[in-house]
Amino acid sequence: MGHTLRFEWELPEPFLGMMAKDDAALAEDVKRAAVLDWVRTEQISWRKGAELLALPLRAFLTLMAEHKIPAAEYDVGWLDKELEVFKGTPSQGAA
User: Fold this and answer.
1) Which of 49, 79, 75 is nearest to 62 (CA)?
2) Cα dihedral sign for 45, 50, 56, 59?
3) pLDDT value, residue 74
4) What is the residue extent of each domain of the chain?
5) Maximum separation of any 2 CA atoms in the chain, in Å
């Protein structure tokens, strides 16, 4: 079961015209921004984000990419270590 959240936000009139054509479009933009931020900060999963926005997972991953939200984060040096394994050369830290 869900919970409907309603809130008011007073914006200067010119701002509304710059951001969205109407209140409903702006509300969707704010909803999308909130969900993307929750995914970016790892508060929810990609699948939950897709579910909240009623999008197929592939479409949600595309939306994440459009907003430069990485689907995976790697430690510094990860690629070099993987390349060493692929080439068959052990890294200096390997025993």
Assistant:
1) 49
2) negative
3) 74
4) 13-87
5) 65
